[in-house]
Amino acid sequence: MTGLARTPIDDVTLRLADTAAWLTTPLMPEDYLTLINPLWSSRELRGRVEAVHPETKDVASLVIRPGRSWSTHRAGQFIRVGVDIDGVRHWRTYSLSSAPERGDGRVTITVKSVPGGVVSTQLVHRTTPGTIVALTRPEGGFVLPEPVPSRLLFVTAGSGITPVMAMLRSLARPGNMPDVIVLHSAPTREEVIFGPELRTLAGRFPNLHLHLQYTRSSGRLNLSQLPDLCPDWPERHVWACGPTGMLREAETYWREAGIADRLRVEHFRPAVTTSAAGGGGHVRFLVSGREADADGATPLLVVGENAGVLMPSGCRMGICYRCTGRLRSGRVRDLRTGREYGEEGELIQTCVSAADGNVEIEL
Amino acid sequence: MKTISEADTEEFGRELDKIRDDVIANRGEDDARYIRRVIAVQRALEVSGRTLLFASVLPPAWLAGTAALATAKILENMEIGHNVLHGQWDWMRDPAIHSSTWEWDLVSPARHWKYTHNYLHHKWTNVLGKDRDIGFVLLRLSPEQPWHPYYLGQPLYNAILAPFFEWGVALHDLEVERVRGGDKSWNEVFIQLREILRKAGRQVVKDYVAFPLLAGPLFLPVLIGNFTANMTRNVWAHTVIFCGHFPDEAATFTEEQVEGETRGEWYLRQLLGSCNLTGGSLFHIMAGNLSYQIEHHLFPDLPSNRYAEVAPRVRALCERFGLPYNTGSLLRQTVRVWKRVFRLSLPTSPGGPERTAAPARLQAVTAPAGYTTGIDVLGRAPALRGASG
Fold it and tell me: Would you say the pTM of this structure is higher than 0.80?
């Protein structure tokens, strides 16, 4: 079932809020109530960070209590998190690493701090319990089907383990764990995110096989090793998550085996190459009336945000199409491929498109 | 009579750009905390005020409640609403405090205001025939506006406008006078009017029906308290806003003068057309920092809490370039505004006896309304309409 079931209590609450709005107009009752508790907002989903647990030296899990209007996620899904840094809200996408069955009304995201990453370093190293963050509801199709297939293979690397961890935690109930093989790569033993928990799970469930590849000593996992590590790989449903290069390799491998439909992938980092930069130009955001000069390497999404436009945004890597805006005039360049495109009236993805000359966009 | 060279004007503009860049470069956490705190204080004051009014069987409770509510409404309108609608806080990317989502506790819809105020008034500040805020189409506040017997009553009109200022603003945004000129269709006016009525309807129901009814037997004290709070806010806003552009030192301009204006000239016009008010920090907050009218007009989208900090730098620049920096106390400026309202209710000839009233230096540099003839503010040939006769 999709959507949220409305109970009679919800109906009464809604009707009360509508009535109370006559007293708070032009604001809503929640504009006052959220001053007492920010999580009461129904217009904007928010969460309170209740704990920050270090996982490795540059990775931490944040335990977040989401406010009203949260909906339970499916293991493997992601959320977007809005963090205020120096007074400015920044949005990033993170997989949920907790199982939906967690049961205490809290969820976790697990974040790796990227060198120079404004948001990730803030979340990992400078976030204290009590911090309020903006959230979106869980989304994404990188999930286990119902019923869960009897034989699974997870191929992950680095922080690509996070959505898979949610799945493993969700499956980790007596009698519930199917035949699972996890092939996970990390530079060293110390840098394996959830290392102790993964090993504990493998000890607890005889049908969970864990292969950890320490790339610094043993080199990268080569898919030609796959038949050795997992002889029945063609029969398994596969979930892969990690760096773009690894995912491309996996896609090729399974496609050539003629079983591309068995492989599901989740991209983590934007596949943006700055070398594809074009000329840049003056950008006019027609709806908001803002204007800005853009270089040919900065996504229009960032240009708009810096100009104070409330830009719709999502994955920031060109996959979710939440950031699209209608092009009125000009041409843009896809930063992933370097391709120049854009017809009048075309919906363009602002997160992976930069101005190639002057641009007018309906945002 | 050119007293600031084109080169100096552009240099003046570049210096102002620098001030602007400095503020933008260190805008951050503290500013965000400031606006959120003002909003929290405002909402707490409003709730306290309305709660106290429910206890208004006791006269001190009525008085305190009304005062708290009036204060909340002033803050909401001036330091929060006006400035949020200018986009001063858009950089935070918080949809709850953003010019595109904000609606204020006034009868006029924010969307209409953003057009007539942010665009027409701020782009065309004090340009006759363009800036509809000169006298709000109701009053004659510049001698270049041709006199008509209608203006004989303008002290009275202004006195009535003050307590009903929010209604005046709502009607002002309709721009009915543009229909006569064919610039606007009646259809557009009716669509806008419907929006105003919908918004105003909810405002009226809130303050004059819902809250009084909730108070039960105290219906009347609550209604009167709410009415008093709205009137107080209106008179205060009217007073502060009129002091921003209509004291005698403020210059008016013609469309010819501003044609092809450079950025430096635009800055110069904003400076010459605006007047500051002096006072303490609480006064500035209650004035929505429009007491820094000059800084607001130079940098309409910088956070209002920063105007106090940039004001000394702007003033120093004015001294360096020999430009006036108009400022005075609220009382002094209000008296000047009212004098002007009275004086211009009568037919005046431009360049009349008042000409000598301004110091020679000001006359040379600025074009105070009332004696714009022949003064070339922007370093161009004088071409003032209606100023020759």
Answer: yes
